[in-house]
Give the backbone structure.
Amino acid sequence: MVVYVDILIILNLYINYFLIRATAVITRRKCSRVRCVSAAFVGALGALAILLPEMPFFVVVLFKAALGALIVFIAFSKRQPVRQPRQKPADFFICLLFFLVVNFTFAGVMMALWRFAAPLGMVFSNGTTYFNIPIAAIAAFTAAAYFAVRLVRLFADKRLKCDKICEVKISANGGTVTLRGLCDTGNGLCDMFTGKPIIVCDLDKIAPIAPPEVLDYFNGKLSESIRIVPCRTISAETLVPLFNAEILIDGKTADGFAGVTRNPLGDDIDCVFNPKIISI
């Protein structure tokens, strides 16, 4: 069967784009359109492996894993500004894990389709799919799969349960504080660079483990190493400095940043967070 390279690249560019978007939805990570298209294009170039002689299965797996790591790096890793809290290495591997799961699931479906249905005009080789069918049909199938992922994510978020008042443990700089946290779905404060949610903490309660630059900020000294995000409430607007911390909410790991405010959060409330901060 004749494989047209232009159709091969365009088709896999489209498929990889939605695989990356699906990964972003599942992991709640932000990925700009430029980064997504760039990463998808690299993945599309990797689809040229279909033109090579048939490779052993373990070689295909290694090739896909290496290509996936490069795609995830382009799509989700960023050079952090000076004031941006450093991202944890685990963030990259979480994105890579879910991208590979999505990718290998798609590849498995394509292999099953090729082996058992054997549609005319389809080639599956070296982990790459080629269809000699209208692009519109592939577009419809891939878009449907993407929206199915979004529905699953929406359903999972609705099922995410969190007691209204929780025990929150935050560790940083060699210390740990235990706070009384309010679970508030209306708290949509997120870091603008990573898209991670922010748990807003009372200054007096979080002060024992807060970095010096955060405490200096509230004393009128602005350090170049601090990251600040705007926060708007019904009654006021303020700026919230952030820092990296290990966060546990009722014993569950939370993936986000600790933010600090001197504004009152409520009676007997030490911090406020959105339940989506709880890791997958």
User: Anything to note?
Assistant: The chain is about 45% helix and 20% strand. Residues 89-117 form the longest helix (29 residues). The radius of gyration is 23 Å.
